[in-house]
Batch of 4 targets.
Target 1
Amino acid sequence: MSKDSLSVTDNRTGRTYELPIEQGTIRAMDLRGIKVDDSDFGLMTYDPAFTNTASCKSRITFIDGDQGILNYRGYPIEQLAERGNYLETAYLILNGELPTKAQYDDWVYNVTHHTMVHENIKELMGGFRYDAHPMGMLVSTVGALSTFYPEAKHIHDPDNRRKQIFRLIAKMPTLAAFTYRHSVGLPYAYPDNELSYSGNFLQMMFRVTEVKYRVNPVLERALEVLFILHADHEQNCSTSAMRGVGSSEVDPYSATAAAVAALYGPLHGGANEAVLRMLSEIGSKQRVPQFIKAVKESGGDVRLMGFGHRVYKNYDPRAKIIKIMADRVFEVTARNPYLDIALELERIALEDEYFVKRKLYPNVDFYSGLIYQAMGFPVDLFPVLFAIPRTSGWLAQWQEMLEDKDQRIARPRQIYLGSGRRDYVPLEARG
Ligand code: CMC
């Protein structure tokens, strides 16, 4: 008997099966042959929220949640954040290797020259109420891009895909900045090709009447690092949405709109926004113990936002980098007054048995909002700031899915617990 196998005895029948183990995994379909009799459908696994199911094989991002390790294509996140920039990282995530100088120049040129959006997008934006949430606007406008680029539906053509990837990565900051300008009633600022990816984004956000916007290099670098940290995170909720929706072979704009929608939720990318609202509600350092008590007594209803993670059962390595970077940013901006509340929350939570027992540590969203706020971004724009860099991860995962021969349209099974067959009762005869 091969060592790399699992022997399973079905006690209903007394039969034993040998299932191959590959890469620490058994194939769920191998269970289908385990049946009570010929009419039996066969055994399935039940895994709500996919807590123990690998939905794909991937070569993009590696996470060791127990040790707090995050690598993109093998490169530790700490090295990329220290020495790389966002577009270089996006290239790495999408292509598997860091670019050569020529590849990098070509990549940056292409992304830079696809930043403009069709003027009709502005009109579309103009249709939203003044207080529309920017993530709602982003979901709609990213989805709308599919109508401007109908050729994007040819998803099996690699050249065509490449072009849509340039467009999506390039236009995301433009759309993001437009959502903000709409909400404050400022005219939209067009891209400036002489600036870096993050510098141009700052310019489109904050330029008012200056002929040439002067980007603060510390803030530009901080944003660049935040973008690197958010670029990919393997099979999270929004990436699974991207892959799941993309598996129907829809165009990448529609699939990305679905991913943005998934990111919007407060348990995912909306958490950075929720953290700031939580800090504002707590209001002062003195009220932290009271809040922690409320979290513990709520039975899971009140959460310490920015804490906990499905995969990390240790300090999120991204949170560590952000916490260090916050000091550099606060030297330029004013110190965010909520920082003291956040530090106190972390201090108490890391000592408290409730959090220790459940291995709840600060995640990427705990400190990022403090930096965004200090830089002048409004709170409801925070999830949008997550969506901009995550677009490269979504697209890399989407492309990997399309090229993976194992993949087909995503279609989970269910355990049906509803009513058995019954006959229709006319309205007048119902009790
Ligand atoms: N505050 C208080 N209790 C918590 C928290 C929290 N933030 N997170 C988890 N728990 C408790 C939860 O109540 C449960 O307790 P019990 O075993 O007594 O029922 C236990 O810890 C396990 O929680 P879970 O909900 O089963 O864990 P999960 O893996 O399904 O959820 C999570 C992961 C990130 C959704 C969750 O930790 C959470 O809601 N955190 C707050 C929201 C947040 O910060 N999200 C950002 C995640 S990182 C960036 C991203 O992915 O977008």
Note: The two ends are 62 Å apart (CA to CA).
Target 2
Amino acid sequence: MADERVNLLGLPRTELEAFVASRLGAKPFRARQLMKWIYRRGAADFSSMSDLAQDFRAQLAEVAKISVPEIVTEQRSSDGTRKWMLRMDEVQGIETVYIPEPDRGTLCISSQVGCAMDCSFCATAQQGFNRNLSVAEIVGQVWLARRELDAGDPGGSNARITNIVLMGMGEPLANYRNVVPAMRVFTDDLGYDLSRRRVTLSTSGLVPQIYKLAEECNVALAVSLHAPNDALRNELVPINRKHPIDELLAACWHYIDKQNGRSITFEYVMLDGINDKPEHARQLARLLRGRPAKLNLIPFNGFPGTAYRRSPAAAILRFRDILNDNGVIATIRRTRGDDIDAACGQLAGKVTDRTLVRLGTRLNTVSRSSAEV
Ligand code: SAH
């Protein structure tokens, strides 16, 4: 018989309260107790929830479960970055990356198996789109990372994941229905209790969903711009053909107004000879000057089969300087975890055939090491 128990992992507070009321005739504070167990203490088993009456726990176990994805592999980078591959089915996986820094710990999570956006410089695009992740699979990535991080340090610090970024595999706004409830759990004080500025959703530019998000959720927004004009952006980020730059930027400024936000982070991958010329920097400055915008320059990370190359360090620095001189704040994203294919744009999520992927990337790494920034 099919398992009809409801997975409580990822249910936002209002839904969990409704669930305990309708299925168990319990008061809302039971939902709050459950959330504390699931998110603060990382419980996956009702029997361990010692402040719940025994018969309530038994009743719960009949109608509900706490079910998390399965970890297939873990890889650790020499720089401390950790990457987990989670099994979605026989061949497909998704990847979650933890990036420690002296003052914070960022968890980069996935929102879809594969991606349909087809950006020409992204490894995830190569595998095409498979399916949306459920709310439990999105929240489950944080739940698992917390467990793994605590494992090496029993009773360890809850503060280790200080930021969550939806910058892994997939286009989060194309899975709006599941991403928004997951973000509610991230910011709920009985969930992961992160301030809205510490949860960042990155999008390739789904304009209607940006307007929708402005009404419903107030997390920080990052936008994958990658080009200063439509002709070039049409090539790099094909969704631009549907929602060109002026429409996209209008949606961004609306989002900031509506959310009383500080600024949008625009991501810009540095591709040698493609979008890294001084003229591109000047065009960008004209688009963003005087706006609530920051630019994050991402040195291109290679993957097997790509014809793109990373811009030389000098070109990246010059690009940044032109922007800064023209009144736009620009920073260079430090490459993290590229020795384990965990850097931006390298997440491929193949459960099988890892050897091929690794060999190709290793060859790539050698050829681009001289361009490290
Ligand atoms: N789909 C969302 C979430 C991905 S975020 C989005 O497009 O924003 C990951 C960031 O890394 C995006 O800005 C993406 O464009 C960028 N990226 C993709 N491939 C890359 C690569 N090979 N090297 C560097 N950055 C890359």
Note: Residues 117, 119, 121-122, 167, 171, 202-204, 224, 267, 269, 298, 300-301, 344-345 surround S-adenosyl-L-homocysteine (CB under 6 Å).
Target 3
Amino acid sequence: MTAGAGEREAIPFYDAHPGDADLRREVIAGLSAQPRSIPPKFFYDAQGSELFDRICGLPEYYQTRTEVAILQRVAPQLAGLVGEACVLVELGSGASKKVRVLLEALRPSGYVGVDISKEFLLASTAILARDYPWLEVHAACVDFSTGLEVPTCDPAAHKVAFFPGSSIGNFDPADAVRLLGDIAALVGRGGHLLIGVDLKKPVPRLNAAYNDAAGVTAAFNLNLLHRMRRELDCDVDPQRFEHYAFYNPNESRIEMHLISKADQVVRIGDRSFAFAVGEGVHTENSYKYTVAGFGALAARAGFRQQAVWTDDERLFSVQLLQVES
Ligand code: AVI
């Protein structure tokens, strides 16, 4: 297809989107296990991605605005640290808002948005392609918790992965090392990873961020049950569950659960799952790190901390990691 004046060709799209079968299989496996759990990657259908976007603007959720302020402050230095004409690969690109600061500062030759939420990814990369006509934009719908096979625009270019929002915190440390290793393989020797990492801090601040007064985080958590109703043959009633989130200091993580408000049975196809009142499903962990603790984790995947920036209150960090060469 050839684009006419003022138009762009369709964005190259790589689709490895997990379908209904993965949702059904992982939900049934998670509800059959003890303790029960469902992986947080299933939060992000179109509704879940919208709700997460709203979370990012909440007064209690300090992460997003703090990270954006750090990125704006350090962007001018970044070009000097990572060099010119790179390809930027954004993991968990979501609404692709934060990356704009980097696009202006780095002027990369290519951008690859990688996300599990297909509709959201296609919409946000289309907007980027419209707003940055000089940029080669690609989209890849991938569940990167199971591997990172992503076509990059220009195989020879220096690669900079961008993994904002402390999404790395949603992986248990062993899985985080595995994912960081996949990112190291993607960017190659000397390649970079710019990553947002949420820091340890007083517990009330953490608890408030995951129990906002407007109830958006609760709606985000409960959307998982709405999604099961929408996409599976499932009779779960989301009103009979409630959101529960707290900081677990022994594991250095926020935990989110969905707690049954009644004795009840949930049916999915021909499978039934009995819940006693108070029984829960573990839906998310969000690990919090010290700067040194995250450096040690990244080193296990072959990265060294080249630069670390924080805000004045040390709520959040943005870290530039480089694969040892
Ligand atoms: C995407 N991730 C980094 C968010 C977090 O803070 O762990 C997801 C989230 N869960 C509840 N609020 C936000």
Note: The longest helix spans residues 62-82.
Target 4
Amino acid sequence: MTADLMGGTPRPKALVTGITGQDGAYLAELLLEKGYVVHGVKRRASSFNTERVDHLYVDPHQEGVRFFMHYGDMTDATNLIRIVQETRPREIYNLAAQSHVQVSFETPEYTANSDALGTLRLLEAIRILGLEREVRFYQASTSEMYGLVQEVPQRETTPFYPRSPYGAAKLYGYWITVNYREAYGLHASNGILFNHESAIRGETFVTRKVTRAVARIALGLQDTLWIGNLDSRRDWGHARDYVRAMHLMLQQDEPDDYVIASGEQRSVREFVLAAFAEVGVRLVFKGEGADEVGVVDAVDLERLTVARSGEEGGRHVPIDGEGPIVPGAVVVRVDPRYFRPTEVASLLGDASKARRVLGWEPAHTFAQLVSEMVAHDLAEARRDELLRSGGFTTRNSHE
Ligand code: NAP
Ligand code: GDD
């Protein structure tokens, strides 16, 4: 079978912006599994930034290559036009964004440029090239647009009230996508996705920050998890389930907008408790506000030993007298630096339209998500511990 044909017909071709991000990587995997040719847009960076998709890379000199990356940026219109012109995709998934809410307060103009105007630039590229009838467009919209929520749970008809430069920029992206659908007949859909996580989630989003810290505390590589608002509540799902929904939206005869959510809500505090439980630590929270702390209440030594050494009984990492995990130890502390100028306190989605129209169902539970993330970060922490004990240095990345 050639790279261009599948069963005698041309392979579907997709262009994915934000290919190096969490969702870009899972979506690329999904599309390749489905037989697509996948073109991704990656940013020029001073060091490699393709770790999440390196396993998909095939030397372009080989036969039958179906995964390609192109340098590009959402702030560069001419570049986007050229990439769309050269790749001529059937489906475009616009996932690229400055996606960190807190960072958007520090870089509001850049966030608007990449997330709001970037979406416009890509839509205009389609129009300038006269591809309105050929291309299907997916916009990565977000539950952050609901912000100060006007209705619980949030659904497609719930009014928006963004609470950050990120939320406001994404609101523009949402409406300009709707406008291009209505004005030019473009098959353009918004996925209003609630928080979705995974083992490859960016390390500074709260779930990954927690699971990394739990693993590193368990291995004695770190003493404390410094965290922000523990009361914040989110509707967390698994990214693999959510990229399936993106693809489904573009397979519909008619474009439309869909909420994608798990329909369950938990606090950041509950996430922290669940993650520590994965390594055999029962935590209790004491105090209030910025003085609240998470204290080790009880330790299941058998479970902690497995967490430290690995399921296969790998290298034994001794516990006694080492590391911060002893009853009474404070392992979680609040740092108001992580509080946001305006917070989105609570998000809960109603995905019944997606379930009904797209036939979408999430396959992962919250418990599976936490378990997978902690297991992945334990493996990384064990590797770091092994390297350090062998006299090597390991990466020391910080927010
Ligand atoms: P992510 O991991 O932060 O990935 C963002 C991607 O966008 C990365 O590939 C990043 O490149 C790229 N990017 C950032 N600025 C760019 C620019 N100016 N030009 C070109 N590329 C740029 O985000 P994610 O979690 O995969 O989310 C994917 C999309 O869904 C984003 O638009 C996000 O806002 C939206 N969303 C996410 C969630 C969620 O819970 N994950 C929920 C709703 C909506 P680098 O790798 O070089 O940084
Ligand atoms: N990042 C972070 N770091 N968040 C913290 C921390 C911390 O130390 N402590 C508490 N939080 C709280 C935040 O204040 C927020 O209420 C919640 O945890 C979730 O924060 P993030 O994980 O950073 O995600 P987010 O909800 O702000 O944004 C994510 O989800 C959106 C969809 O609702 C991002 O992926 C956005 O791109 C996405 O649109």
Note: The chain has a mean pLDDT of 95.
